[in-house]
Amino acid sequence: MINNLTGHMVVKNEDRWIWFSIMSVIDYVDKLIIFDTGSSDDTVKIIKDIMSNERYSSKIVFEEKGAVDKQNFYHIREEQISMTETDYFIVVDGDEIWYENSIKEVINAIRSSNPPYLIANKFINCAGDIYHYRDFKRETYTIKEVTGSLTIRVYSKKITGIHCGGDYGVEGYFDYLNKPVQESKWNIEIMNGSYLHTSLLQRSSNIYGDMEIGYRRKKILSDWDYKFDENFKFPEVLYIKRPDYVFDPFSYEIDWIRKLIYMLRSIKKKIRKG
């Protein structure tokens, strides 16, 4: 294996960002295993179109799993682990878009003479639209005494008994003691690089596609803290030529439902600030 890294993706109704997410990592993984769990938008169409490119057809393993209830969702992740032949796998969601330098930093870490068992990355959490984001400290993830917008994204299969457990949306990875890997003895390295996270934005071209997924409904009113500086550089993949049917990431297009959501979000933001 060239980079000794397999990508794991589980997606549903992600057609706004899935193309950018896949294209931001596809050249850096040896395989990309993608399971769709019942998309009703163009997510599957986009994945299959990428696979029609000879450059990627043998690299992507794609399966349409259909609807999966949240209590059994972890089995999907377990299956991806069992299909992984590399020493490492990287979890990439359909709303995560990587900078080139960030994914290269990951590759360098697992190729090093003393590679970590786990790799954590910081993320830039967009909210409202792609031009706004939340403060790093707004999120409450804690890794190696660092609290904020960061999470483990790369796991070594050399972690004894590594497996997935938990309901959809809060599933995690555990070791042979059934202890969360980040709380056990396995060393973690926090990277300097980050990725763009669009989890709080509309992810399906049809907002009803987001409404189908329970935990996304809770994110609709998420507010932002800052606006990106006009010189801010987004991940490189957002600027490259894309198929005509792929969503323009810098579009200001807003339907009436989103207008209502923005209005409610503004009210919530004012109340929060007192």
Folded structure, characterized:
The protein is an alpha/beta fold and 274 residues long. The protein has a domain at 5-121 and 150-191: Spore Coat Polysaccharide Biosynthesis Protein SpsA, Chain A, CATH 3.90.550.10. It has helices at 18-25, 43-51, 54-57, 74-83, 100-111, 207-211, 214-217, 256-273, and strands spanning 5-11, 31-36, 60-64, 88-91, 96-98, 118-127, 129-133, 141-143, 146-148, 150-156, 163-165, 172-174, 188-200, 226-227. The strands form three sheets. Strands 1, 2, 3, 4, 5, 6, 7, 10, 13 and 14 form a ten-stranded mixed sheet that branches. Strands 8-9 form a two-stranded antiparallel ribbon. It is globular. The mean pLDDT is 89. It comes from Clostridium folliculivorans. InterPro entries: Glyco_trans_2-like (IPR001173), Nucleotide-diphossugar_trans (IPR029044). Pfam families: Glycos_transf_2 (PF00535). Residues 9-116 form the Glycosyltransferase 2-like domain.
Low-confidence stretches: none
Number of helices: 8
The CATH homologous superfamily of the domain at 5-121 and 150-191 is named: Spore Coat Polysaccharide Biosynthesis Protein SpsA, Chain A
What coarse outline follows from CA principal-axis ratios? globular
Secondary-structure content class: alpha/beta
